[in-house]
Amino acid sequence: MLDNYRVIYYNLPYKVNGFILYDSFEDYYTIVLNSKLSYECNIKTFWHELKHIAYDDFNKNINVSLLETIRH
Asked: Which of these, 56, 68, 70, lies nearest to 17 by C-alpha position?
């Protein structure tokens, strides 16, 4: 079970569903979700971002565009 993350809502541009901030010193993640978007969209984005954490994507040397293609 992942227990080193928190979720916050932030007023982001509509085209940005969310993203993750990673603190490598604390090994802690902050999942940022767009407060302008629907509950359903935020749930989908939450699970997508959680996959990045579960698959340790922050420690991989892979192009971000390729990584996003893999996770979708």
From this structure: 68
